[in-house]
Structure formats: structure tokens, C-alpha cells
From TrEMBL:
This is Phospholipid transport system substrate-binding protein. The keyword Signal applies. Keywords: Signal. Pfam families: MlaC. InterPro entries: MlaC/ttg2D, Tgt2/MlaC_sf. Gene3D superfamilies: Tgt2/MlaC. Residues 1-29 form the signal peptide.
């Protein structure tokens, strides 16, 4: 049986913002900015939405999930991510199974990050001025650093791709842990455990990643 994605009650100085840090910028503004500018602008925008209201959102989780869902819809390419997580099994899945997994995966992240936002604690978030140049015009990697309350620095790297004139997140690497690859390996193992029963895997999907894994890194 698959366990919940994070031990939320133990969440402190860890990186539950992840994709949400780039989720609050309106889609129409993305065309005019470079990926790293989107990251910087969205940090301030998202923090303004939740700062001082964490207690309220903790008591009204449905409202926070609605905010998260709206934000993620503009920035995360869930269909691309879902296909990547399914990996080699994507080709043999039916269109209905593909769509259902994308929706299941999307909802699992929304639920997790909404809860994480009201418990996340940090001292500083910074986006370095110097960013690695991309080899392709439609791909980018944006680096960020999250400083925990104890002074520990957690590096975060967003993999982004240009889709129909908008930059969208397709993967996140936290403290050296490639979340996309981690989830893909978990999907592969679940398919093995369930004798390649797509419906059983989708119905029971709950990606596994402990807080300690993110803190310890590779």
C-alpha cells in the first residue's frame, strides 16, 4: 500500500513551495518575461497571497486548494509531466488511462502543496542573478535557493519549456533529488508490483517522498 507523499506534520524548513513559487504570475504576463524573471516576480506575488493568512487557510483548506489549483493551471504542464512519470508505460495505456493518471497526479500535488503552504517555514528565498544559459530557445533551467530557519541552504532547480508562447514547469530538482525521475521510478515499481495493471496503479497512486529525503539530498 502506498503511503502519503510527505509527512506534513514534520514539515519544517523544507521545500513545499516547489512548483508553487512560480505559480502565481498571470499567464498573460509570461510572454514578456524570461524564466528567471518569472521566478523572482512570482515569489513576491505568491507570498502576498498567503502571508498573514496561514491560520485562516489552515482552517479553510478548500479555499487554499482552489488558489493552488488556479495557480498551477497556468504554470505546470501536467500532461507533459504525467507522460514523463508514466515513462515507458505511457505508450500502452489507453487515452482514458492517460487522462485519468494526469488528473490523479495533478490532484495529489494540489492537495500536498496546499497543506504544505500553511506549514512551510523559511528564512530567505533567493534567485541568483547568474543563471546557466540554455542550449535551446524553448528550454530553460532556473536555479533558486531556499534558506531554512537553521541556515541550511536548499538548492532548487526548475526545468521549464516554452509551450505555445508560455513558459511552463515540467520538472523540479530539490537538493539534488530529481522529483520527476523519483516519481517515474515509483510508477515503474508500482506497475511491477501490480502486474502492469494500469487501473490498480492509478487508483492507488500516492507518490512517496519523505521530508528527510529532501533535507539530506543525494
Amino acid at each position: 500500500m502506498m503511503k502519503p507523499v510527505f509527512s506534513l506534520v514534520r514539515l519544517h524548513a523544507t521545500l513545499m513551495l516547489l512548483i508553487l513559487l512560480v505559480a502565481s504570475l498571470p499567464a498573460q504576463a509570461q510572454d514578456a518575461e524570461h524564466p528567471e524573471a518569472l521566478i523572482r516576480d512570482s515569489i513576491e506575488a505568491l507570498m502576498s497571497q498567503i502571508e498573514g493568512r496561514r491560520d485562516y487557510f489552515a482552517q479553510h483548506p478548500d479555499e487554499l486548494e482552489a488558489v493552488v489549483e488556479d495557480n498551477l493551471a497556468d504554470v505546470a504542464d501536467f500532461r507533459y509531466i504525467g507522460a514523463s512519470v508514466m515513462g515507458r508505460y505511457f505508450g500502452n495505456a489507453t487515452p482514458q488511462q492517460r487522462s485519468r493518471f494526469v488528473e490523479t497526479f495533478r490532484q495529489s500535488l494540489i492537495d500536498t502543496y496546499a497543506k504544505g503552504l500553511v506549514t512551510f517555514d523559511y528564512r530567505e528565498i533567493r534567485v541568483p542573478e547568474a543563471q546557466q544559459a540554455s542550449r535551446y530557445d524553448d528550454q530553460a533551467s532556473v536555479s533558486m535557493e531556499v534558506v531554512g530557519v537553521d541556515g541550511t541552504v536548499y538548492p532548487v532547480s526548475y526545468t521549464m519549456r516554452l509551450d505555445d508562447g508560455q513558459w511552463k514547469v515540467v520538472n523540479v530538482i530539490v537538493n539534488g533529488i530529481n522529483l520527476g525521475l523519483t516519481f517515474r521510478n515509483q510508477f515503474d515499481q508500482a506497475m511491477r508490483d501490480h502486474n502492469r495493471d494500469y487501473d490498480a496503479v492509478i487508483n492507488g497512486w500516492s507518490p512517496q517522498l519523505d521530508v528527510e529525503d529532501l533535507e539530506e539530498g543525494e
